[in-house]
Amino acid sequence: MRHLVLTVIGDDRPGLVAALADTVTAHGGNWERSQLARLEGKFAGIVVVGVPDDQADELLAATRTVADLEIAIHRASDDTADDAEATHLTIGVLGNDRPGIVRELSSVLGANGLSIESMTTGTREAPMAGGLLFEAHFEVRVPAGTDLVTVRAELERLAAELLVDLGIDEN
């Protein structure tokens, strides 16, 4: 069984997921995991499929015929060896929106060897003060041996500098 990672994007319309799922199933594939969203009128996502080795080339060719979707396919990597010893953090951020918040947070995480496994961001109206609030939710993998006290201190220093609320939970 081969695992493939499909990245998809197209103008949103009803039936896009069904068309992609039909194509995967018709070629012996199994839809295993996905993250899909509608953003600014576009449908975008990432899908992991398992497919028998002898069907993979046919599935690759068939994805080119799915109407209204641009699909890129990548082989999944086997980098799960370090996961057994890794811990995870859930990080939440809320504050006034301004350019650079994601860059600053991701720079601190990367500089400390942490890997972002998932990230969701958005803006919403600030109910009392007007303007926009920025919200972010990160799921982060922390390699064994990482000094979490230092990571927390750096994130808290940055949150104070950015004037955002920060929540950190260890999983």
From TrEMBL:
<dbReference type="InterPro" id="IPR045865">
    <property type="entry name" value="ACT-like_dom_sf"/>
</dbReference>
<dbReference type="InterPro" id="IPR002912">
    <property type="entry name" value="ACT_dom"/>
</dbReference>
<dbReference type="GO" id="GO:0006355">
    <property type="term" value="P:regulation of DNA-templated transcription"/>
</dbReference>
<dbReference type="Pfam" id="PF13740">
    <property type="entry name" value="ACT_6"/>
</dbReference>
<protein>
    <submittedName>
        <fullName>Glycine cleavage system regulatory protein</fullName>
    </submittedName>
</protein>
<dbReference type="InterPro" id="IPR016867">
    <property type="entry name" value="GcvR"/>
</dbReference>
<dbReference type="Pfam" id="PF01842">
    <property type="entry name" value="ACT"/>
</dbReference>
<feature type="domain" description="ACT">
    <location>
        <begin position="90"/>
        <end position="171"/>
    </location>
</feature>
<dbReference type="InterPro" id="IPR050990">
    <property type="entry name" value="UPF0237/GcvR_regulator"/>
</dbReference>
